[in-house]
Design brief:
GO terms for molecular function: ABC-type transporter activity; ATP binding; ATP hydrolysis activity; long-chain fatty acid transmembrane transporter activity. It contains 23 helices and 10 strands. By secondary structure, the protein is an alpha/beta fold. Helix 10 crosses helix 13. The protein is elongated, with a radius of gyration of 37 Å. The site of adenosine-5'-triphosphate has 12 residues, from helix 16.
Length: 733
C-alpha cells in the first residue's frame, strides 16, 4: 500500500511516519538497485519464459491425459454395451441425487446425525461470535496502545486471554464434530448399501450379469467413494455455513460502522468475479468421478493378482501382470497430473481474483470513506481513526474472506458432484437390479449379433478351414522349435535363487530324488519321493483329495521351497502349468490365448491371428468361442466363458506356448471325452510331455507311468499297461 496514504491517515503518529518513510526508502533502494531497462527486460523475459513453459506443460499434460484414456482401457468392461449416462454437472440432477443420499444419511430429525448437525451449527455460530468479539478487542487494544492507556490495555489483553479459552475449545471441537459427522454419514450410507447390495443375490448380479445394471468397481464405490462423498458432504456443511453466517454478521456490523456503500461494492465485485470463474471452470465433477474410476481399476488389478496368485505364479505371468498394473497406475498418474495442473491454473485465477483483487477492493472500501471524510470520520483524532482502521480492516477482511469462500465453494461442490454421481450410480444400479430381479433375459437372434461378432475370425477370408490339421500341427511344432531360443530370451532365468534345504538342477528331463513334500504349515504330505520322467513319456498322478498332487507341482514350479532332496528339471520356460482354475487375464480374446505373452511378443515370434485360430479350432472344433467374439473383443472373460470354454482356452494357450513339459492339473474335467482325446492326441503330435493329475481311469490310455499318493505320505510309481489297467480303479495296491 502507498505509505504516504497511510501516513496521511494517521498524521500525529511520528513513530509510524518514521517507520513508513524507512519502508519507502527501502522500497526505492530495491527499485534502483538494477538499472531500470535491464531489470524490465529480465522481468519481461521471465514472464514470457514462465508463460511459455506453463503453456507447453499444459498442452503436454492434456495430451498425456488423452493418450492414457485411449490406450489404457484395461477394465473388465464390455465395450459393446451402450454407455451409461454419467451426469457429473452441478445441475438439477445433481441436487435431486444429493437430496436422495442426504435422506439416507439423515433419516429423521431425531437421528444422531441431525443432532450432530445441530451441535455443529451451534459451534459454528459460536466461532463466528468469538471472531467478532476478537476483532472488537483487537481494535480496542490498538486504540489503547496508540493512546498509551496502559491500564485499559492490560484489561484488553486479559479479555483477549479469556476469549482465547472458548475459542480454542470451539476450534478443536469443530474439527472433531466435522470428522464425526462424516463418519456417521458413512455408517448410515454404508449400512444402507450393504443391506441393498447383499440382499439375496444382488451382489452376484451386480458383478456377473452384464448389461446396463452391471456395476464396475463395486468395491471401490462401496469403500472409497462413499467415504470421500461423506467427507466432502460434512466439510461442505462447515465451509458453507461459516461464510454464510460470517456474511450476515459482518455485513451487519460493517453497515453499522461504514454504511451500505462499502459492503455493496464488495458484493458487486464478487458477483462479477464469480461469473468470470464460472466461465473458465473446468469440469472438475467429471474429472473427480474419473479419478475414482481409475483408482477402482488400479485396486481391481491388484486384487486380481492376489486372488489368482497361484495361477499367475504357475504361468510365470509376473511380467504381463506388471505391465497391466503399471498401465493402470500410469492412467492414474496422467489423470492426476492433468487435474493438478488444471487446479493450479484455477488456483492462479482464484488467488488473483478472490484473494488479492478482493483485498484491493476491500482497502478501497475502507479508506475512501475516511479519505473523503464521510460517515463522521473527519472529526476523529488519530487514536479514533486507528481504532476504526484496525476494526474495519478486520471486519472487511472477514467479509471478503466469507464471500471469497462462497465463490471458492464452487470448486468443492463440483468435486462433490463427482462423488455424488459415483455413489448415486451405485444406488441406482442396485435399485434397478432389485426391480429387474425376476425379469427374463432378452433373446438376441443371430442376425442381431453386433458387428464385432460378425467380424469374427471364423468367417475371416484368410483362414482356411479345409487345411490338413495334422500337417499344420507338425508345421507348428517345427516353427515353435525354432522360436524356443527367442522365447527363452524373454526370461532371464539363468541365475535363480532357490530357498529351502534341497537342490534344483537344470536338465532335459524331470527327476525327483528323495524329495519330501511339506506343506507351509509343516505337514508332511509325501516322504522321500523319487522318480524320473523322460521326454515323450507321460505320467498320470492320482490320489485322494489333499494328498499333495498339486503340491508336487508347487515344488516343481518353485512356488514352495524344496525341503530336502534334489529336483532335476528343464528351464522354467520349458514347463507350462495348466492349473485347476483356468486363469483369464484382463484384455482381449487374443490375450487369453497368448498369456503371459503380449501382442508385441506374438508379433515378434511371427505368430498371426490365423495361427491362433487353428490352435483354438483344435480344441473348439464347433467354434463356440470364435462364433461369439473376435480377437480384439474385451470382456469380463471370467463371466463370459463357460467352464468348458475356459478349459479350451487354457488348452489353446498350451498349444501356443508348446513347452517341452506340461502339467495338467485336472484341467479337462469340463470338456467331453471326445475333445479330451483330441487334446491329448494334439499334445502327442506337438511333442509335449504330460504330467497329468486326474481321477479318471480312462485317461490312462494317454499315459505311460502312474504316480499314486495314498494321502498318508506313501507313494507308488508304476508302468501303465493301458489295455489291462484301463478299467482298474485308481487305488493304492
Ligand atoms: N498355501 C497353503 N498353506 C497351507 N496348507 C496348504 C496350502 N496349500 C495346500 N495346503 C495343504 O496341503 C495339502 C495338499 O494340498 P494339495 O492341493 O496338494 O492337494 P491335492 O492332492 O492336489 O488335492 P485335490 O485333489 O483336492 O486337488 C492339503 O491338506 C492342503 O490343505
Amino acid at each position: 500500500m502507498d505509505t504516504n496514504l497511510v501516513s496521511s491517515l494517521i498524521p500525529d503518529n511520528r513513530a509510524f511516519k518514521r517507520a513508513s518513510s524507512k519502508l519507502a526508502a527501502l522500497f526505492s533502494a530495491t527499485q534502483h538497485r538494477l538499472p531500470t531497462t535491464i531489470g524490465k527486460k529480465v522481468l519481461l523475459l521471465a514472464a514470457i519464459g514462465g508463460g511459455a513453459f506453463s503453456l507447453v506443460r499444459f498442452i503436454k499434460t492434456k495430451k498425456n491425459n488423452k493418450q492414457s484414456a485411449l490406450v489404457l482401457d484395461i477394465k473388465d468392461k464390455d465395450k459393446d454395451q451402450p454407455k451409461k449416462k454419467n451426469v457429473t454437472r452441478v445441475d438439477a440432477v445433481f441436487f435431486r441425487r444429493l437430496a436422495k443420499i442426504v435422506k439416507i444419511c439423515i433419516p429423521s430429525m431425531r437421528s444422531k446425525e441431525f443432532l450432530s448437525l445441530l451441535y455443529l451449527t451451534a459451534l459454528l455460530f459460536a466461532r463466528t461470535m468469538l471472531s467478532v468479539s476478537i476483532a472488537e478487542i483487537a481494535g480496542k487494544n490498538a486504540q489503547n496502545l496508540v493512546a498509551r492507556k496502559w491500564k485499559e490495555m492490560g484489561e484488553g489483553v486479559l479479555k483477549f486471554a479469556l476469549v482465547s479459552v472458548p475459542a480454542s475449545f470451539v476450534n478443536s471441537s469443530l474439527k472433531y464434530e466435522t470428522d464425526m459427522l462424516a463418519l456417521r454419514f458413512r455408517k448410515r450410507l454404508s449400512e444402507y448399501v450393504h443391506k441393498e447390495y447383499l440382499e439375496g443375490v444382488n451382489f452376484y448380479k451386480a458383478s456377473h450379469l452384464g448389461g446396463s445394471d452391471k456395476i464396475d468397481n463395486a468395491d471401490q464405490r462401496v469403500t472409497s467413494d462413499i467415504e470421500q462423498f461423506c467427507n466432502s458432504m460434512s466439510n461442505l456443511y462447515t465451509t458453507l455455513f461459516k461464510p454464510v453466517l460470517d456474511l450476515v454478521l459482518f455485513t451487519r456490523k460493517l453497515v453499522v460502522v461504514m454504511g451500505w456503500g462499502s459492503p455493496l461494492l464488495m458484493f458487486g465485485y464478487f458477483i462479477v468475479s464469480g461469473f468470470l470463474k464460472k466461465l473458465i471452470m473446468p469440469p472438475f465433477g467429471r474429472l473427480t468421478a474419473k479419478q475414482s474410476e481409475l483408482e477402482g481399476n488400479y485396486r481391481t488389478v491388484h486384487q486380481r493378482l492376489i486372488t489368482n496368485a497361484e495361477e499367475i505364479a504357475f504361468y510365470d505371468g509376473s511380467r504381463k501382470e506388471r505391465q497391466i498394473i503399471n498401465l493402470s497406475f500410469g492412467d492414474i498418474y496422467n489423470h492426476t497430473s492433468y487435474v493438478s495442473y488444471l487446479k493450479c491454473l484455477v488456483g492462479i485465477f482464484d488467488g488473483f481474483l478472490v484473494k488479492y483483487c478482493a483485498s484491493i477492493v476491500g482497502y478501497g472500501c475502507m479508506v475512501l470513506p475516511i479519505y473523503f471524510g464521510i460517515r463522521g470520520s473527519s472529526g476523529k483524532d488519530s487514536t479514533e481513526l486507528t481504532k476504526d482502521y484496525i476494526r474495519n480492516t478486520q471486519l472487511m477482511v472477514a467479509l471478503s474472506q466469507a464471500i471469497g469462500q462462497l465463490v471458492l465453494l464452487g470448486n468443492k461442490i463440483t468435486n462433490m458432484a463427482g462423488y455424488t454421481s459415483r455413489v448415486s450410480e451405485l444406488l441406482e444400479m442396485i435399485k434397478s437390479i432389485k426391480e429387474r430381479g425376476t425379469s427374463q433375459f432378452t433373446i438376441v437372434h443371430e442376425d442381431e449379433i453386433p458387428l464385432s461378432s460378425a467380424n469374427s475370425p471364423m468367417i475371416s477370408d484368410k483362414y482356411d478351414a479345409a487345411v490338413d490339421m495334422s500337417a499344420w500341427l507338425q508345421e507348428w511344432r517345427r516353427r515353435s522349435d525354432e522360436l524356443r531360443a527367442v522365447k527363452r530370451s524373454l526370461y532371464n532365468n539363468t541365475v535363480r535363487q532357490v530357498s529351502g534345504g534341497g537342490t534344483f538342477v537344470e536338465g532335459d528331463y524331470i527327476k525327483f530324488e528323495d524329495v519330501s513334500i511339506v506343506s507351509p504349515e509343516g505337514k508332511l504330505l509325501v516322504s522321500d519321493l523319487s522318480f524320473q520322467v523322460n521326454p515323450n513319456s507321460n505320467v498320470m498322478i492320482t490320489g485322494p483329495n489333499g494328498s499333495g498332487k498339486s503340491s508336487l507341482f508347487r515344488i516343481l514350479g518353485e512356488l514352495w521351497p524344496l525341503h530336502c532332496g534334489t529336483v532335476i528339471k528343464p528351464r522354467k520356460e520349458d514347463i507350462l502349468f495348466v492349473p485347476q482354475k483356468p486363469y483369464l487375464v484382463l484384455g482381449t480374446l487374443r490375450d487369453q490365448i497368448i498369456y503371459p505373452h503380449n501382442a508385441e511378443d506374438m508379433k515378434k515370434f511371427g505368430v498371426t491371428d490365423d495361427d491362433l485360430q487353428h490352435l483354438l479350432t483344435t480344441v473348439d472344433p464347433n467354434g463356440t468361442i470364435l462364433r461369439q467374439w473376435s480377437w480384439d473383443n474385451r470382456k469380463d472373460w471370467n463371466s463370459a466363458f463357460s467352464g468348458g470354454q475356459k478349459q479350451r482356452i487354457a488348452m489353446a494357450r498350451l498349444f501356443y506356448h508348446r513347452p517341452q513339459f506340461a502339467i495338467l492339473d485336472e484341467c479337462t474335467s469340463a470338456v467331453s471325452d471326445e475333445v479330451e482325446d483330441k487334446i491329448y492326441n494334439t499334445c502327442k503330435v506337438l511333442g509335449i510331455t504330460l504330467f497329468t493329475v486326474s481321477h479318471r481311469p480312462q485317461l490312462r490310455a494317454h499315459h505311460d507311468y502312474q504316480l499314486l499318493f495314498d494321502g498318508r505320505g506313501k507313494w507308488e510309481w508304476t508302468k501303465i499297461n493301458a489295455a489291462e489297467d484301463m478299467k482298474k480303479p485308481l487305488s493304492f495296491k
